[in-house]
Amino acid sequence: QVQLVESGGGLVQPGGSLTLSCATSGSSLDWYTISWFRQSPGKAREGVSRLNGRDGSTWYEDSVRGRFTISRDNAEGRVYLQMNQLKPGDSATYYCAAGALGSTWPEDFHFWGQGTQVTVSS
User: What's the mean pLDDT in 60-75?
Assistant: First the structure.
């Protein structure tokens, strides 16, 4: 079992940058895939990026590839999402979630943070 807490959300102008942090506790990152999801009103929850805590492999949704970077600090038990070149369409509540290694879809993830709001607006 793992607990997760997101932080780092806020208001940023288009083209700006923001870094989200997911603090984990209760279990080693080595045994989970950690994923960032986002959800906007009226839209389905969308996978943004994920990281395999065992081998460090990563995945990015097409719309954020090249702009967002997921990384980890194993010693601190944190997973980060560095978001650059932010667009209004990136506005959403961002969640980090933990699932068994290889998890892909939202239903695969059984441990979720509380969410942090990201608003991209002039």
Answer: 96
